[in-house]
Amino acid sequence: MVPLIGRHDERRVLAELVAGVRDGRSGTLVLAGEPGTGKTSLLDHVAAGSPDLRVVAIAGVEPESCLGYAALHRLLRPWLSGLDALPGPQRDALRAAFGHTADGPADRYLVGMATLTLLADASAPEPVLCVIDDAHWLDRESADALAFVARRLYAEAAGLLFATRPEPQSPVAGLPTLALGGLPGDDALSLLSASVTGHLDRTVAATVIAGTEGNPLALIELARTLRPGQLAGVVPLPAPLPVGELLETHFQQQIRPLPEDTRRFLLLVSAAPPQNPALLWRAAAELGIAAHRADPALSAGLLTSTLEFRHPLIRSAVYRGAAPADRRRVHAALADVHDPEAEADRQAWHRAQATIGLDEQVAAQLERASERARSRGGHAEQAAFLARAAELSPDPRAQAARLVAAARAQLVLGDPAAAGRMLDRAEPGLDQPVARALARQARATTAMYSGAYGAAPGLLLGAAESITGRDDALARKMMFEAMQAVLATDDQETMRDLARAVLASPAIRSAPPTYANQFLIGCATRIAGDYQAAVPIMRGALAALETDENLCEDGPPLAVISILAADDLWDDEAGRRAWDRIEAYDRRSGALGTLRATLAVGSTWELRAGRFEAAGAMQDELADLVNMLGATHGEHSQRIELLAWSGRETEARSVAARATVAHHFVRTSMAVLEISLGRYPEALEWLRPSLERDKPGAATRALHEIVEAGVRSGDHRAAKAALVRMEERAPVSGTPWGLGLLARCRALMADDEQAEELYRESVTLLGRTSVRTELARSHLVHGEWLRRRRRRADARVALRTAHDMFSRMGAVAFAERARTELAATGDRPRPSVASSPGGELTPQERQVASLAAAGATNAEIAARLFLSTSTVEYHLTRIFRKLAITSRRKLAAALVRS
């Protein structure tokens, strides 16, 4: 065994990570390098040097890379007895992922949380180090779960070490990474010298090191392969040297001289599930391989005493170097010895790998396995099973249907390119209406992934119309998705065509009053021009979101539906109640993917209520969640609303400039900023598209802004158009929010005799709502109107109210506008300054502190914030120290002081 030579910097980094784990902290590191750079040696070095840690090691295996959650199951096997102690949703998700129950698909983020909780619990008695070699061969579901855990580890006394080849699309990309290249000259020479038993010529050594670029495994294997005369410089070296991509070939050359049964046994080991010796020996018996046939491979150093390969590349060399017929025989043997009940999916996969040509029986077995994979949330496994089933299908219709289903699974994984390829292959066999419709639906989703929202509504509507009368529920779902897509575009003609088609569809006449159906019908009615008829339908959608026992986040995020409906109705009360229900559902069910949208919408409601600090806390949690999921925060456009209202001009403009599409949210937020700064023509330019396109929710949000910007910039035509629309709709909705804004807009355009009464009406009506930002603005414009009529004393009252409200909120630019107006009345308020809530506490510490102050237990805080209880305890310790308190009872008062 050649000792580990060099890699001093890498060893230091690894030692620091392990020391942190010993001290109760957590750490993650990815060793990324080409084959042979020493990743496995470093992992072995760390494991051997950590006897006081519980080290659990696994390696990704190429033949298992399509079996969902297979690697995660192997990693967590020592702790699965603790499953029952997990929080209910986490426990159920992990059981579903491992096929222990058939309760429905496992949410992949909940599986990640369950894994985190298991590791955190396991590390309580002793620190834990998980070592994952060949991470590039992990199945997609396991890799996603482990990457999730790696991003959430904080204070659990647990470490994760990955070794992988450099792959930009790897699930562990973005984690702390240490790149490994070849060894530097002196270390490479030391390693080569240690690997050679005879004389090593200096010139030969330099040639070998240069030819291998210091690749450690290449150096070691060349030292074993080259003849003593070649190493001594007596016999010329082979040209080119057998290195680089030829390492697998080199191992194959070592395997070739072995006896036939030994080679077959090595092939069996390469294809069999790791760490399952009983199954391995049953398969060996099936193939007629005696146990002693493993001895030559053990003697050659290809296998360890535990029947594992000495290096992961040997596994690849064995499997890839085998003849296809030999691989099929081995897979057939493995299929025969798997339990048809407990291991039906593995059996199906091995049977498929053992089959050549067409075989409907095997294809059907794979299709059934794909359904079980889907029920576990194993969408990558589902796609792989269906793609292989399609290859084996003798019937073109069955083949096409399986390819479409595989494409839909790829879309769930977020791989539209793979989905598109499968749909192309399916096209010739699509002669059934439902199959064609599902393919069109998948095409539409593929288009939306690439940003081509304009193509999606037509595809989805065509698909829906083709199956109306055959599957009305699916047709309505497709129309709902079409509405979602068209609302993301600026295509008015398509939006109107879709609305007419929805209202005329026979599938709509039989629609039950679910939130999705009512939102679809309400939007279509509203787009068709009948706002009055749309109001009760949209109210029904909000009521259903508040009360429906069958909420399900399987389409557009529910929070987005709720705020579009609430904004179009100016109904803050119903909108907030619906949001409260959705947030509780998302947290309880662990729907972390849609919780992103839910937090963004919640931030808007907090902002409207004047609670800018709470809005900022939700934005901070959203950013933390995005990081935890390994996603990108895009253009951070959701934060622009808070930036605009807070008067943070430079940051808001930076976000707007980075936005690839200036959608209505960005436009309206920037208009608020411009209005707060008194730049009314600029505000109106941001708002004009909303007036022209009149999309549900988006246009309503902008109408009162257009009136103010139009009046102040002298564009009375735009102001009048927006006011007319408000006068048609606000009375129909009849909410204090809508009527209060209408009164203010009328006052801005009214004669002096009418204006004051309208301003007072606006203040009274908005005072009945939770929308404190708009109440403060009504006080502000009323005060400005009073000052211009030289009623200074009255103006001061309104302006002081506005200034105080804006200052308390943190709406700096609006507060400054009120201060300037007050100064013109002879009052001298202090200049407004940006607030900096939170003292020394980090955003996450403030979240933990707020929940603890409200009486939540550590376990409840951990479940709500998707942390481990150890991390919550760690945060509370720091919070107590920062706030100079010793008890939870003092938290509430300390938070107010901070």
TrEMBL record:
**Keywords, ordered alphabetically:** ATP-binding, Nucleotide-binding
Alphabetical list of Pfam families matching this protein: AAA_16, GerE
Domain HTH luxR-type, first and last residues per copy: 834-898
Q: Quick check: keyword Hydrolase in the entry?
A: no
Question: Which PROSITE patterns does the record associate with it?
Answer: HTH_LUXR_1, HTH_LUXR_2
Q: Which residues form a coiled coil?
A: none
Official protein name in the record: AAA family ATPase
Q: Give the source's domain of life in one word.
A: Bacteria
Which SUPFAM superfamilies does this one have? C-terminal effector domain of the bipartite response regulators (SSF46894), P-loop containing nucleoside triphosphate hydrolases (SSF52540)
Residue ranges for the region (Disordered) are 823-846
